[in-house]
Specification:
Layout (H helix, E strand, L loop, with lengths): L9 H14 L3 H15 L12 H17 L3 H18 L5 H17 L5 H26 L1
Helix pairs in contact: 1-3, 1-6, 2-3, 2-5, 4-6, 5-6
């Protein structure tokens, strides 16, 4: 069982929500930049995605927005993320891929948010990603069992 990170503080949740709101006007470009970073870091991951990433970019931003919106409701968020992890395992996502995804996310956030991506905001996003990645890994393990 993957250890659950400590709960986020109300201030950290506010930082997530404020910074995500800054991304929304350029959500598609933000998602496109994320996939550029991801495939540059691990070109083999490109094969796991459709040729046209338009729908995938939309899904990515919806998933991140959902996680940001539900981070203070782990009883709702965590089962959804576990299911997502199980589905991703079927698509060929491996536990080792989560590091590249996290790095691409943080790099994208730093570029898109600029000065708004301060140390406290970075820490909040790192905590959210650790929570999501941990639950997705748990979901993948359950799917494999």
């Amino acid at each position: 069982r993957t250890p659950t990170p400590p709960p986020m503080t109300p201030a950290q949740i506010q930082l997530l929500r404020r910074s995500f709101a800054l991304l929304l006007p350029k959500a598609d470009a933000t998602a496109g930049l994320f996939y550029e970073h991801l495939f540059a870091a691990d070109p083999a991951l490109r094969a796991l995605f459709p040729a046209d990433l338009q729908a995938q970019r939309t899904k990515l931003m919806q998933m991140i927005g959902g996680a940001v919106g539900l981070v203070d409701k782990p009883h709702v968020l965590l089962p959804m993320v576990r299911q997502l992890g199980g589905r991703h395992a079927v698509y060929g996502v491996m536990p080792a891929h989560h590091g590249a995804v996290g790095a691409a996310l943080l790099k994208t956030l730093a570029q898109r948010l600029g000065p708004a991506f301060d140390d406290d905001t970075r820490t909040a996003w790192e905590m959210l990603y650790a929570l999501i990645a941990g639950m997705m890994l748990e979901g993948a393990e359950r799917a494999a069992a």
